[in-house]
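Pasting as-is:
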Amino acid sequence: MTDAPSTTTRSRALVDAATGRLGAAGVASPRADAHLLLAHVLGVPRGEVAALLVLDREIPGAAAAAFESLVTRRERREPLQHLTGSAPFRHVELAVGPGVFVPRPETEAVAQVAIDEARRVVAERGGAVVVDLCTGSGAIALSIATEVPGARVHAVELDAAAHEWAARNLAGSGIGLVRGDARTALRDLDDVVDVVVSNPPYVPSDAVPRDPEVADHDPAVALYGLGPDGLEVPRGITAAAVRLLRDGGLYVMEHAEVQDAAARAMVDACGAFDQATTRSDLTGRPRMVVARRRRARVED
């Protein structure tokens, strides 16, 4: 007679095994991912998983099976955020999944520049108009609306699937979401916007991302910026910024770390901005171009 199978599993053994599997599959942060997946399955904050492990608590069989299923999918390099259904970004939590670009920590620095400028304008004039072009999940737009009371935020997304995710994330926020081409949308806001911010597609067509989570799961429309340098779409976004911004308004656009000089040249070529500058992300890499709309010359 054999013993009946156990209906529980010790938490340490479960997480240690998952960490080993994820590490062998090339996941960059295997233990952190294992913790987050177990927290998701149990419906608890990640911090409670650490306590479970210290005490080596038993995990019920159904939860252990659900965890194992998610670990298997993560081994196949499905994005962690697709498995949990959410992605943190600054002070907000966004619903994400197939069909929308998963917001990255480096974009938080892009949002910070826009937030700082919006705050300055609100303090100076009592309100600010901000536009987020190629909003994707709505991460930047929602962060600005959340962190800058007095900012009137508008967001534009063309792709149908991404627009659905943005609509879900921005519901009830007061943000004006438009499905349309970022190059031509919001004509009614021409010359009145204080901040235009964008994380557009900018990857060159021949530069396929190395990570399977990006190459196989992020939508191509959110990655590839077209043209040999990947900046064809950003050129259209920059032209839209020229049209939308008031004199003295600020333009902030994310780009790849190897595109800093090309992005500055692209903006300067418009002839509508003061000299463009490059700013770094949280890791010190050059990841955004920033420029101020040139003020109209006042005749003597």
